[in-house]
Design a protein that fits this description.
single chain; mainly beta; 4-stranded antiparallel β-sheet; 8 strands
Length: 121
Amino acid sequence: MSTVKANTYLAASGSPTEEPSIPALDQRMAKAWVNFTTAGTLTIRDSYNVSSITDNGSNVDIHFTSSMSSSSYVAFVSSEQATTNSGNEVGSYNTGWFRTWWSIGEVGNDAATVSAIVFGN
């Protein structure tokens, strides 16, 4: 067995901004993730492959920087509620974005922290 140590991995093109491909791990690595708040001003705290989020009042759309190759990906959302939380939901899967909402029965409550992660192609 060999060990590879490196400070930086570059894409085959040599670009430091293009994601390197590791075929054996591609299906097991997150394709996108985001941490944001809806309390007060909708704000992305940190993200990977998420270009923007849109507040639709009772739900939020999460937009990808680079689209998924199909809409058959998996998205998981978790939220820390300012009030009682009865669940998180994800739907409207598109290659360029998906929709999430929380507080079923209490639609529109602000969440102090919302986290989302996406796996797939």
